[in-house]
Amino acid sequence: MSEQNAPGSAMALPPGPIPTTPVPFESSLALGLLTDMLRIRRLEEKSAELYGAGKIRGFLHLYIGEEAVAAGVMRALKPEDAVVATYREHGHALLRGVTMRSIMAEMFGKQEGCSRGRGGSMHLFDAKTRFFGGNAIVAGGLPLSVGLALADRLQGIRRVTACFFGEGAVAEGAFHESMNLAALWQLPVLFCCENNLYAMGTALRCSESQTDLRAKAAGYCVPAQAVDGMDVVAVHQATLAAVEVVRTGQQPYFLEFQTYRFRAHSMFDPELYRDKAEVDRWKEHGPIHTYTARLKAQGMLTEEQFQALDAQIGDEVDKAVEYAENGSWEPVANLLRDVHTPAGGSTA
Amino acid sequence: MSRTSYREALREALREALQRDPHVFLMGEDVGKYGGTYAVSKGLLEEFGPERIRDTPLSELAFVGVGIGAALGGMRPIIEVMTVNFSLLALDQIVNTAAALRHMSGGQFSVPLVIRMTTGAGRQLAAQHSHSLEGWYAHIPGIKVLAPATLEDARGMLWPALLDPDPVILFEHGQLYNQEGELANDMVVDIHSARVRREGHDVSLIAYGGLLGKTLEAAERLTADGIDAEVIDLRVLRPLDDATLVASVGKTHRVVIVDEGWTSGSLAAEVMARLVEQAFYELDAPPARVCCAEVPIPYAKHLEDAALPQVTTIVAAARAVCGK
Questions:
Q1: Contact residues on chain A for B63, CB-CB shorter than 8 A
Q2: How confident is the model at residue A5 (pLDDT cuts 50, 70, 90)?
Q3: Residue B25 near chain A (CB below 8 Å)
Q4: How far is CA B232 from each of CA A226, B205, B210, B214, rounded to the nearest angstrom?
C-alpha cells in the first residue's frame, strides 16, 4: 500500500483526495451502485441493532465503510462466475443475489436462512448464485478459489472466480501458496484484497515487513493494482478491467482495495488500537455520502430520490427482519442432517 | 486371479478411475514425473498427461484446499499427500473446510474429494515420517476414513471412495507397498464394513492397516498355545462397523485391539469404549490393547521395533486375556 502505512507512521490515512469527479456511468448503473451500497449499510445497521437486542448472536463482523468494494466488484461479475468470501461477507452475499431475508434469517439461526441456521453471520452460502461462503479461517478461501478455477480449466469452462480476503490474510501461508499455484497454472482467479488496514486490532504496518501488497502479488508474477476502495467508481472501473484480463487471458489478477472499517472488528471489540481521529478522517471518505454528493452534483440524483430509495431499502430491511422473526427453528431431530450427503443426495 | 503387489493394485485402481471418469484427476507432490514418492503413480503421467496427473509444489495446505475447490467445481480429485505427518500442514483445509462444508452450508455443498496418504512406521524414518495419525482423522465428523490392508482393498476401495459424495481419506501403510499376492480380476469391495480375516473362537484380535499382517501371524502362533484367535480387519476407521466387532466379541468373549497409534486417545481406545458400552456382559476378561509406545518414533532399528506393536507383543497380550 501507499507510504502512509509504512512502518513508523502514526496514523493510517485514506489513499487519495475525496473523489468529486462526475460519475461516468449511465443512470441505471450509477444509481444501482448507490442502491447496492445502501442496501448493505442499512442491512448491517439493523443487524447491529438486533445484535444488541439479542436476536443475533455469535460473532457479527460489520462491513460498514467498505461497501464500495463489494458493490463495485459484484457488478463486474457474471452470474456464471463464482464468489468466495470471508466472514465479513453480508454485503458480498447480498449483492451476489442472496436475498436479504434469507441472510437475516440465517443470522437469527432460523432454518429459512441461506445456510439453514447452521452457519450464522460468518457462513453464508448459496449454491444458486455460486456463492461459496462465508469462510471464517483467514485465507482459507484462497485455495478454494484456485480449486474452483482449476475445475473450470479442466472442464473447458471459461469463468472467473472472485476471491475476497482481507489484508490480514497475506500473512498466512495459504495466501502465498494459493497465489503461487494460481500463477503457476495460470488460473482465472480475481484476487480481491480488501485492505482495511487492521487484522482485528493489528495494523498492517505492525505485521508486515512489506506493506505494499502489490509487491507480494508481483513476487508470484501476478499483475496487481491498488485501488481507492472508498470510491465505488474507481472500484468498478478497475474491476471491470481486471475481470476482462482474467476472463479473456485466463490468468490471475490481484486487486488491492484500500478501504476502512468504520465499526469495530466484531461486536466484542473495544477498539483500543486506533485513534478516533483516524476513524473520523476515513469517515470523511465514506463511500456512500461521497458518492451521493457526486450524483447530486451532476444532477443524477435529488435528495427526494435519495430519501425514496432509502425508504424503499428500509422497507426491505423491515420485511427481512419480519421474515426472520417469523422463521422456524430447525427441529433438533435434524441435528445430524447433512454431516454427510444423504443417499441419493446431490452435490450442489 | 493374477499376481500383483499392493503398489500395483493401488496403481491399477487409479488407472481404472482415470479411465472411467473424465472428472477424476490425481494431484500431489511428485505424482507425475517422479512417478510417486512410493511409485504408486508410476507411468500414469505418460498415460493420462500432466493435466490429470498434476505435480504440485510443496504446498500441502493449498493443494488440498485446491482439491476441495475443484470438487466443489464439479471434479472428482484424488489428492496424494506424501505422508500423514505432512498432512498436518493441510489439516485446516481438511477439518475446517472439507469435513464441515456440507453441514455448515445447510446441505448445499458436498465435497466429493479423495485424499490418499501414507502412514505408519517400520522403515527407520524417525519421528517426522513415521507416525500413525489416522485416529485423529477418525475423530472428525464429515469425513470417512479407510485403511486398506489387503491387495483386494488396495485395488477395490478407491472407486467406491470416488463415488462417495463426501470427503474420504485413504491411509496406505508404508510397509504394505511391496506386499505381493494373488488378486481376483473382478473383485468388488465395500467401504462400510469391517471384515473377519480369520475365524476363531477364543479371542478377537482387532487390527487394521499395517498391523493386520502381524496380527494374523500372531493368530497362527497362538494355535501353539491352544488359542483359536479370530482376526478382524477394521478396514473402515470412520464410521466404525460396531456390529461386526460386537458380533465377534459375542462369540469369543475376549478381545485385544492392535493399533499403531499411541495408546492415549487412540482409535483402539474408541473401539474398546464401544465394546465396553455395547458388549460389556459378553466379556470374560478386561479388554486389552497393543499400541505404539508413547514416544516419537526413534530412528535406531532396535528402538523403533521396541516402540511398535510386534507379533510377540500381540501374542503376549492375547495369552494374557485368555489367562495363558
A1: 143, 177, 181
A2: low
A3: yes
A4: 61, 6, 13, 12
B282 catalytic per annotation? no
B129 is an active site residue: yes
| The pLDDT of residue A40 | 98
B70 contacts A148? CB cut-off 8 A? yes
The pLDDT tens digits of the residues spanning B242-255 come to: 999 999 999 999 99
* Gap between the Cα atoms of B269 and B290, Å rounded: 11
What is the CATH topology of the domain spanning B195-321? Answer: Rossmann fold (3.40.50)
User: Domain range holding A65?
Assistant: 14-323
Residue A333 forms part of a structural domain: no
Share of chain B above pLDDT 70, in %: 100
Residues from chain B that touch A134, judged by Cβ atoms under 8 A, are 104-105
Query: Per-residue pLDDT for A348 more than 80?
Result: no
Domain B2-183 has CATH 3.40.50.970: yes
Task: Give the start-to-end residue ranges of the domains of chain B.
Answer: 2-183, 195-321
- Testing the interface with A: which of B104, B113, B168, B191 to mutate, by most A Cβ within 10 A? B104
Instruction: Tell me the pLDDT tens digit for each residue of A78-120.
Output: 999 999 999 999 999 999 999 999 999 999 999 999 999 999 9
In a domain, A132, yes or no: yes
Catalytic residue among B8, B80, B129, B270, which?
A: B129
Q: Give the number of domains in chain A.
A: 1
Q: What is the pLDDT of residues A283-317, one digit of tens each?
A: 999 999 999 999 999 999 999 999 999 999 999 99
**CB–CB of B105 and A118 under 8 A?**
yes
Residue A187 in domain = yes
CATH code for position A225:
3.40.50.970
Cβ contacts of B67 on chain A, cutoff 8 Å: 147
